[in-house]
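Feature request disguised as a bug: please show the residue count (333) next to DNA ligase (ATP) in the output. Example input:
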Amino acid sequence: MSSGLESLPKSAHDRLRWQPQPRWVDPTLATLVHEPFSDPDWLFEPKLDGQRCLVFKQGQEVWLLSRNRKRLDETYPELLRAFAEQPCRSGVFDSEIVAFENGRSSFARLQGRMQLGSADQNRMHETPIHCYVFDLLHIDGYDVTDLALRDRKKLLKRTLRSRDPIRLVQHRNSDGVDYHRQACRAGWEGALAKDATRGYARGRSRTWLKFKCVHEQEFVIGGFTDPAGSRTGLGALLVGYYDDGHLVYGGKVGTGFTEETLHDLRDRLGARERARSPFSEDPGERGARWIAPEFVAEIAFTEWTEDGKLRHPRYLGLRRDKNPADVVAERPT
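Example output, currently without the count:
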């Protein structure tokens, strides 16, 4: 065993499993809830506004996968080099890739990197990124997902060196209510609470909870309107979410675009036009153009209306790491 594993208490050793390193692990997804809380069995972390990334390392070989299993190697080549230089022989790490603007993580700023590929590597320095690692799933031949989160955090600290562009997420062990309040004052997207006594869950889980300072989530683009007046490209996006297999109309998004974004979206969406609406009910938008529901956008908004529509929505960017069929309305429980 590695020195990190040997440092674990005996109760944690019994939960270790010798297992070949996997090529994929379904990531834990946090559940949105209303009220922050404090609990000695939970720990609290910042909710970073970026792109989820699972990092796999085997010797000098490193590969990056988004939460919908898309390879991100060509988008973030500096991370391949940085993880290859880490001293651990092998490992699987859960992380968030972020870009900063005015000292805060910004999904809109990260858009400058998410759309780039290998042919654009000379432009990558324009949007520097950091990889914030917050969990360890496999290390040196051992599956550690059954370990309590506190034990995984200790192993992670022994396994990775925190040096740019790799950083370890700092957490707090108490006073989650105050932590959430500070997060909102600092302009973060929100805060996360994680059950420190539990193993790593797959898929949506209540062992990880999220408390948002602003409403923000992904929506499926089902259509758009033509521009009016002096506007070019397109007028607004028509977006929705899935409920029981049906694409439900969520509203019209007409702000948050730059001129470049408007033209880029018109080109992308125009290539996927179709005659019929993908929404389960007629949105009633005049002059609407329908597209195949294949694009996912990140949208900020102030609140849900009583009839299930978005109030004051604002476009933040496209998401390549989300499957349209997985997009549902995130309402606090």
